[in-house]
Each structure stands twice: as structure tokens, then as C-alpha cells.
């Protein structure tokens, strides 16, 4: 099905199943331990041996030799594969660093060997007996030191943000110089780790020249193609299966060393092999969100109208890596005739920087929305009103292009009312609650909406069961549930009559999960397949498709009503289709909008920040399942709170690695850090986006929330911290007198 005209009235609009707050189908499996993750697929490979990955002990240079003699003699060892035995292997989709092969070391903990043994403990013990000699070379590890002179380079997050190295509209410098009120500050954000619960893990098994990988991956078709290329095996001989993914956040968009090494190890050991990356290895072997240094300049008239805005970001990456697209939102969020955005890239020899939940917007809004708060104060304006004053209904870089639907103002007004914003004391450091300095802050949320071609197959059997198969993944997001809701709505059955099977490369190629494009794209693919299945049902029953009503498990036409399953009496009916998005997705700007309000308490004696209250209001098209969408948004809010308060990979700038490589040293928020969270969705549809009229929401929740936390800390204490995260050491010596 081609989607190239705005969606009219369709079967989804009935909203009998879609749009209802529905429990996640996989919820009971996840909470009872019966949803097997990749490493736990005992059913498929009961005799799997264990692979333990060895990472390079230097950040840059060459492996001179690897001595495996002692390791080979260790108990239980079945095979050892070293990087020196393989020429450098090809890279897969979006890989900047090489995953294995050859003697070159591009970053610390790049994989150099995998040791296979009967048990995990034996493999680990043997791995420590492997002796390695390196020829180390000096590298560049300090972003601040390399930022000067970093050139502007184009970049694309692959998730809806990006652009040219430098983009200009009007005359920024001239307008800024003449602006009655000027703001100019520089900020920094930290390197962050995805820190998903489930580590990267794969079981690989060969059958002759065919290989199957039970793995944890967000994008099955990418992984399928990439592994075929990396392993040098025809695509038809590779199968990926990833029905449950314990979080990815962008870290599992692409193939990582676990999959490649499991395949190589299984071949060497002549047995299925399972490989999980240990947490210490994940931090430095896989990807991370790159740190940024960002400068924001905004010029405004005294009434708060922005006349000029510039946002420049510098990040680092390996030579083949991309810049963090942290200035993207600034091209679209606020009006202003004179504009400049730039992404600069410094060469660093740290592990590969790549996509992490809302790549670009998450660190970009962390900075832009603090800058907006600072300028509002300078103007003596309420921060909510300042944003409303500078709203735009057209793309500020190309005013002929409108937004398909934009209700940022609606979010701002409703959020302010629900949060009780009018009670805020705009003067910082005024509100005390015992030992706590209390403050409130807000920030806008923004993220582009993206759609990707997505396919599905649906089958109807005689019992009236509808089975959906697509290689779409559920990375903890609720894909199983919204896909079942879509098929149930389309076929006129209850959700328990739908079976959803995901994550297998043998199924039709879907959008996959990422960039908050998965829900809208994949359900649209299911919609398209169900349109075909409805036609097939009508034809089989000898009724006119246009007259057929699918409801209550029946197909009705005139006075005739037959059980849906009767259409499959002569054999199951199958239909397959792919939704393809034509130019419609480019003709107007499709974005999602929101606002975050946060109340914090900062301990007047210790500088410890506790979040007390959070509210998000989101405008993101039709909400397919308010329950799972809310979970996505609150998850994003938690993650953004982590970015604001604690998450930071500490760079050892001498030896070139992230030193805090576990969840004790790399802190993420836990339940005790997060108060009750409230999420409100504006009741809206976007017929330009898809037949579902939905948009992305999975990453909107992280966008801007960190800035709202930072702005609340300022309101509580009067201290403006511009280097994130705001750990208490950055507050302590500037705290107001506590007595
Ligand atoms: Mo993307 S960082 O996988 O949503």
C-alpha cells in the first residue's frame, strides 16, 4: 500500500480496540520469567557452549601477538578465536568501528578474542590466561582539548535529525549584534551509556553453511544484511530471531561483537555458542551517546521576540563516525528570521559514539531549553509565555513548509494549568521546605516524526484466529500489543483472537524499532496487510468487499452474518503487504511536541537534588495505546532525569577509556529517585502521518526533561550549572547560606 495522500476515514477510526489503554500482551511473560531473552534460549540450543569475549587493553595501536597456549590447556576449553586469525571483517549498518579481525586497535575494549568453553566460568577463567602484546600509539581522548578547530560536518542520526555541517538563514551575526537583548553561553553534556537491562547477547548455531542467530537486536533486516556481509555468507543462509529484547535505546540498532563472535566461535567449536557482553565490556566495546560542547546565542527584542538564534555543537568520534546531531531541533522549534546552526566533529579515539534514545534532540534540548530559561529571566518574562511568544506554525528555515500538525502552545498552556505553574515564585532560592530548597522548572519537548516502510503478513484460520507475522521487534515498548490491537480493529475481533509473532528474519521486513518510528510505521504495515486480508475474506465469502462489515467476530453484509473463521473453512487465508510512504512525509514538517514541568528539592546542606514532581504533556498524533505510550514517556522522563543529575561516562583522558564501566560507577536513576509521574496526551490525530494517524512518542519523553530538571534546580537555588550532569559537587560551594 502506498501512503501518499492524507488518511481519510478508515477502519481504525472506530477505536474499539486501538486507542484503548490495553495491558501489554508480553507483560505476563516478562514478569513471570517466561519470556526468554537471547541468552536464555535453552529450547533452541540446549547444548550451547559459552563464549567469553576479550577486549583490547589499549585504546589505540596494534596487537603484536596473542599467546593462547595456556588458555587452550585450561579446563573445559573448546576453542579460541583471535582477531589475528581473521583479516579485518566488513562493517555492518551504521558501524563506525570494526567489530573484529586484523591487528589494528581503534578503541579500548575492541574485541580481540573469544574463548569458548563448556561453562561460562571456564571460558572466563581461560580468557584471563590469554597473553597479549600490543604496540600502543598515542590517541586523542579529550573533547575539550580537541574541540578548537573541529570542522563543521554534515550528519544524520538515522532517526529524523541531522543536516548540513552549517545551516544559515538571513544574517545571524548582523541581527544578533543589533538585538536589544543578547544571550550567549556555552554548555557541555556528558558521554552516556545506554545501560539497557539486557546485555548484548547472541546464541549462534551452524547447520552446514547456514547459521541461525538468536540475538537481541532492534532492527532485524539491518542485522540480517549486516551479518551476511560480515560473515561472508549469502543472506538466505542467515537467520536472525529476536522475539524479546530487554531494552536497546539505540545500542542494539546494529550488529555488535556478540553476534559476530558467537557465529565465529560456533564455527570453531562446531557447536552452538552463546556470547553475552559483560557490563564492563558493554561500556567500552559498544557504542555510547557522545559528549557535546554547545554554544547558544539568542538575540531578542525587549518584548521577547527572537530575532536571531544560533546553536553550535561540537562532539567527538572515531574517524568514520558522525557528529551528534544536537542542533537539529533548533532549526524548527522557535521562530526567528536570522538563524545559524552548526555541527562540528572532533576526531577522538574513544569508543564509537552513536545513536542513543533521541540522538541529537536529547542533548540538544538539554542545552537549548536551559538557554531559553536563562533568556526568559533576562527579559523578565515568564518562561512559558516566552515560548508561546516565539511559537511558529511553519518551518522557520523554509516558511512555505507548514507543520502537518503542531500544538506546542496547547501543551504549554495545559501543562502550566495542571502543574500549578502560576504559583511559582520566579525569584530563585526563595522557597524552603525544612532542609530542602524547593524549585520548579519547565522546558519544551520536541522530536521529529519519522516513518519507514514496513511489511506484515496476516493469516486467518478456521477458528477465527488472526496471526500477524512481521520482523518488527518489541524492545520493551509494547509492539506486540499495539500490533494485536491494530489487527483486532481491522478484522473486527477481540485482541485475544490475535496472535502476534515478531523478530524473525523469516517474516516480512518491517520498520524495526528506533527513532520513535516503530509504532506508527509497523502498525501501518499491519493495517495494509489487513486491508488485503479483508478483501480476501470478502471474496471467499462471495460478498462485495465495500459492503462487508467486520465486527464482533463476524462478517456482515446486508442480512447475512457469518463467523469470520468461516472464510477460512476451505483453508487458511493469508495476505501480505508493505506500507510505503511517498512524498507526503516530506511535503509538510512532521514533528511531535510536548512540555515538561518538574519540581525538585535541593538539600540546603549537601546539595543533593531530589525530584519531587514531574508532569509531561505530549502532542503526538493518535495515541495507539495510552497505557504503553505512557510507559514510554515516563521511561524517557526517567532517562532524561538521569542525564540531568547523574549519568556520565568518566573519560580517562590519558589511557582513553570510560573508567566507570559498571552500574555501580555509572549511575542511572532507580525507583527511589523518581516520584510519581504524570503524563497527559492531547487528543489529536495527524492524517498526514499514516493511516493510523499516529506519530512517534517513544523518545519524546526524554526530550527536554533534563532541561526542566536543571531549570528547577536554578529556581530552587539560584545556581545555574551549565555542565551536565548536575552532580552535587557542582552546587555545593555555591549554595546559599543554609542557616
Ligand atoms: Mo534509536 S536511539 O534506537 O530509538
UniProtKB/TrEMBL annotation:
Name the UniProt record assigns to this protein: Aldehyde oxidoreductase molybdenum-binding subunit PaoC
Record field: transmembrane: none
Annotated source species: Methylorubrum zatmanii
Enzyme Commission (EC) number: 1.2.99.6
Domain of life, per lineage: Bacteria
Top EC group: oxidoreductase
Gene Ontology molecular function, alphabetical: carboxylate reductase activity
Residue ranges of the region described as Disordered: 145-168
Protein keywords: Oxidoreductase
SMART domains: Ald_Xan_dh_C
Domain Aldehyde oxidase/xanthine dehydrogenase a/b hammerhead: 32-138
Pfam families: Ald_Xan_dh_C, MoCoBD_1, MoCoBD_2
